[in-house]
Amino acid sequence: MRKLFVATGNRDKLREIRAILGDSVEVVSLHDVPPYPEPAETGETLLENALIKAREGYARTGLPSLADDTGLEVEALGGAPGVFSARYAGENASYQDNVRKLLEELGSRPLIERSATFRCVMALVDGEREVWWEGAAEGVILSEPKGTSGFGYDPVFYSYELKKSFAQATAEEKNSVSHRGRALQSLVSEVQQLLSNIK
Ligand code: IMP
């Protein structure tokens, strides 16, 4: 089976990526290769950051490398936290710190003013090509966390399609409509073909 390097050590993301790619490829992650410092995410867009991580992954492993960058864009906050979602409450912020900051920023705004979009860019770099796919999920930011599944902003992201928060959904439900699930679904049909063309 062809190997695909997924340039992340985030176990939450890896769980979702492995579940969606299934047994179409063997997923190798940052946990399976000799350690290297993850590159700084200095890009101004999700695509730039996804490419930075995928290029570094390919340079380090020589394997076709996939990297994801995700942002939560809240309309009332002018698209924040967006590309800064991981460090919204500071450099070493935890998932809970970021959620707390988001709820503080939105204060007591009514639901109608809490629209948000999760956006994910998945980039694949293999030395010959750089390709990417995007996925998005629409919803609103709840006034308090609901549910215990998922990770990150999932407890406060109410999905219009699921009619519940991502943290109240099963993994299958979230993956079927999520930003990451959608980006992966578009690539899964192409990835086998891309990998089979790689020397
Ligand atoms: P990253 O820069 O792509 O690692 O992701 C930015 C931040 O967005 C992460 O630290 C998480 O807090 C959050 N995030 C990414 N994907 C998800 C998701 O599927 N659900 C909830 N939060 C997410």
Descriptive report:
This protein is an alpha+beta fold. It has one domain (2-196): Maf protein (Alpha-Beta Complex). Helices cover 33% and strands 24% of the residues. Strands 1, 2, 3, 4, 5, 6, 7 and 8 form an 8-stranded mixed sheet that branches. The longest helix has 19 residues, at 179-197. The radius of gyration is 17 Å and the shape is globular. The model has no long low-confidence stretch (mean pLDDT 94). The protein binds inosinic acid (IMP). Inosinic acid binds next to strand 3 and helix 3.
Which ions and ligands are bound to the chains?
inosinic acid
Number of strands: 8
| Oligomeric state of the chains present here | single chain
> From N to C, what is the helix and strand string?
EHEHEEHEEEEHH
Count the helices. How many?
5
Residues in β-strands, percent: 15-25%
Q: End-to-end span in angstroms?
A: 14 Å
Please state the overall shape, judged from the principal axes of the Cα atoms.
globular
For the residues shown, what is the average pLDDT?
Answer: 94
Strand count, sense and barrel status of the largest sheet are: 8 strands, mixed
